[in-house]
Amino acid sequence: MKRYELIVIGAGPAGLSAAIEAASWGMKVIVFDENVRPGGQLFKQIHKFFGSKKHKAKIRGFRIGDTLLKEAEQAGVTVQLKATVMGVFNNKEITVMMNDQIEHFKGDNILIATGASENMITFPGWTLPGVIGAGAAQTLMNLHGVKPGSKILMVGSGNVGLVVSFQLLQAGCEVVAIIDASSRIGGYGVHAAKVARTGVPYYLSHTIIQAEGEDCVTGAVIGEVDDHWQIIEGTQKKLDVDTICLAVGLSPMSQLARMAGCEMIDEAVKGGLVPLCSEYGETSIPGLFCAGDVAGIEEASSAMIQGRIAGSVAARRAGYILDQEFAQKNADFQESLAQLREGMFGAEKKGKNLSHTDEGIPLSLTLLQEGYINEAEIQRFPGFSETISSETKTKGVYPVIECTQNIPCNPCQDACQQGCISIGDRITSLPIVTDKEKCSGCGMCVSSCPGQAIFLIEENYEEDYVAISLPYEFLPLPQPGEQGLALDRSGQAVGSAEIVKVRQGKAMDETAIVTMKVRAKYAASARFYQQLEGCLSGGSTEALAMKGGELE
Amino acid sequence: MSKVVERSQDLGPCIPQNDDDLIICRCEEITKGEIRQAVHDGMYNLTEVKRYLRTGMGLCQGQTCSRLVRSIVAKELGISPAELELTSARSPARPIEMQTYSNEVW
Amino acid sequence: MRIKEHPILHTFPKGVTVPFFFDGKTLEGCEGEPIAAALRAAGVMVHRHTSRFGQPRGIFCAIGRCTDCVMVVDGKPNVRTCITPLRAGMQVQTQYGVSAKEV
Q: What is the domain range of residue A216?
């Protein structure tokens, strides 16, 4: 039986981070993963991550995956793919299915980093082909380059539902609607807003009643629910969709921990049954650790830190790190982890109906209920520069930051070389536009914002026209000179727009900055651009012309 | 005594519900009505329901339905799902061919 | 259904285009991609019909967990098509219960 100082089960963000950390201290480490590719779900995450620089913020998930794989290789970690751990037994012995046989291994330390599985909801027709998990949609489109469907209904408005909806739009699918039985959008407001401005409608307090179809999905019926989750008669609505995507939460995949005999605890805030862990991720069995979603549903950034912690604790157990060195390292990790857990989506406030930001500003209710901030509400947030539409027109360009919830994220502060943007040490604080006069219009804040919530406004671009620069991650990329529609935050056309500049660069990492010229009166409302032919969220050209509003 | 083990309790008749024919265990094709009926037949915990109906014993080994079955059984017993102990987690954790399972190397 | 050009990922690294057989019909897919991806790209939704109620099933989790997408591949039933790589000339058949339909 082969013996390792650390056996890691699962080559996702937590497992790889732990393996890298432990191996970098000299431990003999092996990672088992049942998949053909390592990285867990990281390679399906094509959006930019939140956090601060040390959390790899503004880097796309799949690039973080690439980096982890390189680091693992450099650290001498063995990653054994197509190796399914079948059992965890006494004395930290495991069995692994690989090469059509069962092999036994023994670990001085074992880390279970098996991640999570998707929750599902049931409704008539939920077994029909065309009803898929949100993870399946991500796998098909982001790994295999195949659209999961053409017209999609997204069930669930948590971060997974919102992020996958945006990715579906990027893949060229039409997202017909996002529904949620809750009366509030569950995920980050900035994620909701970037989907809303493309024209995707939200139906809150709505649930799916039925998937229609004989052999596969040909439609969906949704309806509004009352306070007792009962359908309100007469609110039924039929949607023309071919795919229903379920994003209704995740559960820790903790079977191996149960099998090992770890003491378990059922905690709603962690997503279900999880092993009872110390601050180091150590379970009730000494030397057996859990990190990442298996220990409680969070996200990849915290999973990576949890992995680092478990890796370093294992190294200390084996005597590779001295206590003092460990204490210092652990303090850094814990601080970093605590930062990610702050804010209105952190464990402490998760699921609570907050009414104000940490700064005491009333939250935008339209953002929570419709997915976008209305024009009146945005003005009370510190990222808003109030001179828009006022009599005294400013010269030059300045940023407007539509970031209105306390989430752990600060790349905009680092991106601005001019010092216009301030968040401070607490990374969940709302960004403040401190001195808009200094803005050089470089656009680095626009492309670095993982929430795509920053816009540059140039008043007096021309007589009676302003130029609005916005983040753009769709194809085809607009071209200078092109005429299209300026959309407001809800995706409604407000007027015509002309593209005057399109910027792309390595530092922007695929987030193009599109500058459009619109009538001055739309300076505070126009936030997205829609090409006249082949629009993002579907609909024909005629439909566009119909919602084109005032075309000039 | 917890309701889970109190076998003398009277759950009353199993009143049909209009979503009783919803498939819950996708692999073994067990419906909500069958799970509810099983509880009324005296299967008061998840292990008993599993052995009675084969919920979670199909190809996927309960990956999708275990949470759903748990909430249906709990509701029928009038308790919270957290009060119901999950069925044992055993090796093999994933479906495996017997030929492979017997091909053991040390 | 294939994404020709992606705004973030651009193109997808794919194997060569190979023929395979779906219920006797010749389809094309990319070598090495999951059978399920090739079928979805070719517009095939139904992978199997269940044994008890004869209901259609297709891709559900796409990562090998739910086992809903199983089909008869090269004569072997219950093959999870979402994690089984496509090879040239593969015989993929709709599964009825636990076997292919008798011809």
A: 120-248
Question: Where are the domains positioned within chain B?
Answer: 23-85+93-101
Same-domain check for residues A393 and A525: yes
Q: A295-337: per-residue pLDDT in tens?
A: 999 999 999 999 999 999 999 999 999 999 999 999 999 999 9
Q: Does B15 touch chain A (CB under 8 A)?
A: no
* DSSP symbol at A274: E
Chain A residues within 8 A of C7 when measuring between CB atoms:
170, 473-475, 477, 510
Interface of A with C in 289-328 (CB under 8 A): none
Residues A504 and A408 in one domain: yes
Boundary residue ending a domain (A223, A248, A273): A248
CATH number belonging to the domain at B23-85+93-101, selected among 1.10.10, 1.10.860, 1.10.60, 1.10.3210: 1.10.10
A258 vs A545, more confident: A258
* B100 touching A (Cβ < 8 Å): yes
Rounded Cα gap, residues A13 and B64, in angstroms: 23
Find the CATH number of the domain harbouring A137. 3.50.50.60
Q: Which residue has the tokens 């007469």?
A: A234
Task: Check whether residue A23 and residue A58 sit in a common domain.
Answer: yes
| Residues A248/A132, Cβ–Cβ less than 8 Å | no
> Who contacts A88 (Cβ-Cβ below 8 Å, separation ≥6)?
A9, A94, A110, A112, A256, A257, A259, A260, A288, B91
Asked whether the beta carbons of A38 and A142 are under 8 A apart, the reply is no
Nearest by CB: B105 against A103, A120, A273: A103
Q: By C-alpha distance, which of A284, A147, A197, A407 is closest to C12?
A: A147
Which of B23, B29, B60 comes nearest C67 by C-beta? Answer: B60
- pLDDT of res. A552: 45
- Summarised one tens digit per residue, pLDDT across range C84-96 is 999 999 999 999 9
